[in-house]
Amino acid sequence: MDVEKGVMEEIKAWSKQALEAPHPFFNNLPACPYAQTAWANDKVGFCFSYTAKRQGLYSALSQFDDRWDVICYVEFQYEPDAESFHDYIASINHAISMGFFIQKDLWVMGFHPDDAQEEAFDVPFEPVVDDLYAITFIQRLSKLEKSAEMLREKGYYENYLKDPEMAHLWDERQETYRRLCDAGIK
User: Fold this and answer.
1) Is 168 helix (H, G, I), strand (E, B) or coil?
2) What is the CA radius of gyration of the chain?
3) In this model, does residue 90 exceed pLDDT 90?
């Protein structure tokens, strides 16, 4: 099986099991309430990287268009330390907000193979491929924030915001979005 096709099938299956199913951590809403619609409307894009170089990610950020709701940037040569990986994701969001990738209305989130044990994603899952990989999810910040506000009203973030690290990420995203709005960019 072609590895890229296998990874796409695996991510779609993982989405169905871990992201689209109701979860008590998110007030019995799916971890990603919009995932099912994005898949159904063919709004999930993929990019693959086989080197440790970041140019592919930078290009995906600079060339992002609204054909996609989310782009899954899959890295087979990723930072092995999960904390360093997530620190890098934070630095990318900062660089986006400073205009380094032309567009400022973007936000990235990362999934490292060691994240699989996170409470919100701790569901039984049988991998399709043997290869391990990290994923950087690229989305429009404005769309993400509007969706987040609707979900917050439904109690989606109640447990999430009790975690100091998650609350910090929430605040950082909100502040970035506020600056984007103040600058009239969104």
Assistant:
1) helix
2) 16
3) yes
